[in-house]
Write a structure and sequence with these properties.
This protein is of the alpha/beta class and 303 residues long. The chain is built from ten helices and eleven strands. It has one domain: Rossmann fold, CATH 3.40.50.
Length: 303
């Protein structure tokens, strides 16, 4: 699928019917494209124009804490005063509702086929989990159906104006992250999550290559579960051998955003639906999260 590239222009008011920006890919109907598909593509473009920064959180391997990083990244940006949306595109295992204690929440329609995201304070959240009647139902879909649902979530969810849209994608380089990148087109980039071990690093290198092939910038690499900080003495002890996050960042020539220690409170806060960065803001682990967020915000200021 061709990318939808929207070049920012001061003359663009988000009204495709009267648009004078010829460089915008959504300004003209493509050969062979139906009127319905063209209208849907224009609507998706309008939605994305209201979002300043779009960041996808990726990992080549499951179990590295990618969703935990995505949730705490979104909450941290919200605490920093930014208008933030969090989109969960993990079709088979949407965990964001659980992590934010929103399992009973349901998305509502607002007319004109628009879907309103679930609001948690200033944070707007959308997940396939908000559309399922039974949270234990298995989603057995092939690629085209996944892409169709992801397109609908990007096109029909009325995010309004946002400073950041954080997208939590499932592990690997398959349908979900590919659909996100192709449908959105121009993005700030990807935050890559790994752990210190070689087995994790090998898979994350594939995600780095995924970004290279799709011309998706890498915002930086986060090494999660990087040591254990004793709550009594403050001493940090390595649990997994390796230092692969920093090494990979240096090899790939991308920023290394930092190391997040293994902290039992992170796991328990996810199970309770209480964002760690908010409820444990005084801990050393939270300070490491804050350092990662600061680098992302500094990157915004330099643009």
């Amino acid at each position: 699928m061709p990318e939808t590239e929207v070049k920012e222009d001061q003359s663009c008011g988000g009204n495709c019917d009267s648009c004078a920006v010829s460089s915008c890919d959504a300004s003209e109907q493509r050969p062979g494209e139906s009127a319905e598909d063209f209208a849907n593509r224009q609507l998706l473009t309008k939605r994305m124009l209201g979002i300043k920064h779009k960041i996808v959180v990726l990992s080549g391997k499951g179990g590295v804490g990618k969703s935990t990083i995505a949730v705490n990244l979104a909450v941290s940006l919200s605490i920093a005063g930014k208008k933030v949306g969090l989109l969960d595109v993990d079709i088979h295992g949407p965990s964001i509702p659980t992590m934010l204690n929103l399992e009973g929440a349901r998305a509502q329609s607002s007319g004109n086929n628009s879907i309103l995201p679930v609001e948690m304070g200033a944070l707007k959240v959308m997940s396939l989990g908000f559309l399922l009647e039974n949270k234990d139902s298995a989603i057995i879909w092939r690629g085209p159906m996944k892409m169709g649902v992801i397109e609908q979530l990007l096109r029909d969810v009325n995010w309004g104006d946002l400073d950041y849209l954080i997208i939590d994608s499932p592990p690997g380089t398959g349908d979900e992250p590919l659909s996100v990148v192709q449908l959105i087109g121009k993005m700030d980039g990807a935050v890559m999550v790994t752990t210190p071990q070689d087995v994790s690093a090998a898979d994350v290198r594939k995600s780095l290559d995924f970004c290279r092939q799709l011309n998706l910038p890498v915002v930086g690499i986060v090494e999660n579960m990087s040591g254990f900080i004793c709550p009594d003495c403050g001493k940090e002890t390595a649990i997994f051998q390796g230092n692969n996050g920093e090494i990979m960042a240096e090899e790939a020539g991308v920023p290394f955003l930092g190391k997040i220690p293994f902290d039992p409170a992170v796991g328990s806060s996810c199970d309770k639906g209480a964002p760690f960065i908010y409820h444990y803001s005084k801990t050393e682990t939270a300070k490491r999260f804050e350092s990662v967020i600061k680098q992302i915000l500094d990157r915004e200021e330099k643009e």
